[in-house]
């Protein structure tokens, strides 16, 4: 079975995921989404008949409370910045944000700061496949949201990121 601390955790097939001890999967699932209730729900849903069922179970469990969203956001790096800690999620984050690196770093830093001043938490988007310009456009559009609505948007983005990462776990 793959080591949960390894930089590339892919290696579980669905059967391996379904049969791995919970204590082996728990740290890796926490790297996908640092919400203990979500981790417990994904583990409790095993065995999954296929990857689509696993992702559907993940999505159902990713209906996060405001407190869960805030806690999960606290562990994410800012868009355009490196991860605050190492491990699997740092490697995943770098890959997910690969399209937003480079020349727009100063604009992203300023936009992140304005967003955090407005909402009190960091801006998060599932950045896979997005350019820096697309991320900046999304951030600007979300600045008009009411804080409670924006927290729900951030929660949905956490769910998207969790699904993307979970797909990597069961590659």
From TrEMBL:
Q: Which domain of life is it from?
A: Bacteria
- List the catalytic activities from the record: 5-hydroxy-2-oxo-4-ureido-2,5-dihydro-1H-imidazole-5-carboxylate + H(+) = (S)-allantoin + CO2
Pathway(s) of this molecule: Purine metabolism; urate degradation; (S)-allantoin from urate: step 3/3
UniProt-listed Enzyme Commission number(s): 4.1.1.97
Domain Oxo-4-hydroxy-4-carboxy-5-ureidoimidazoline decarboxylase: from-to ranges: 18-166
Tell me, what's a Pfam family for it?
Answer: OHCU_decarbox
Question: Which Gene3D superfamilies does the annotation name?
Answer: Oxo-4-hydroxy-4-carboxy-5-ureidoimidazoline decarboxylase
Q: What is this protein called?
A: 2-oxo-4-hydroxy-4-carboxy-5-ureidoimidazoline decarboxylase
User: Which organism is the protein's source?
Assistant: Saccharothrix yanglingensis
């Amino acid at each position: 079975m793959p080591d949960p601390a390894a930089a590339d955790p892919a290696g579980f097939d669905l059967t391996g995921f379904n049969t791995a001890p919970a204590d082996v999967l728990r740290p890796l699932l926490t790297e996908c989404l640092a919400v203990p209730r979500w981790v417990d729900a994904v583990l409790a849903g095993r065995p999954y008949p296929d990857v689509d069922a696993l992702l559907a179970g993940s999505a159902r469990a990713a209906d996060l409370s405001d407190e869960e969203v805030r806690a999960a956001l606290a562990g994410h790096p800012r868009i355009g910045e490196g991860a605050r800690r190492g491990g699997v999620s740092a490697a995943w984050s770098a890959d997910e944000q690969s399209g937003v690196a480079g020349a727009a770093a100063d604009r992203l830093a300023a936009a992140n700061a304005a967003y955090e001043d407005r909402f009190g938490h960091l801006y998060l988007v599932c950045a896979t496949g997005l350019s820096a310009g697309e991320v900046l456009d999304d951030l600007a559009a979300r600045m008009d949201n009411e804080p409670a609505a924006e927290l729900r948007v951030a929660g949905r983005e956490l769910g998207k990121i969790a699904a993307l990462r979970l797909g990597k776990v069961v590659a």
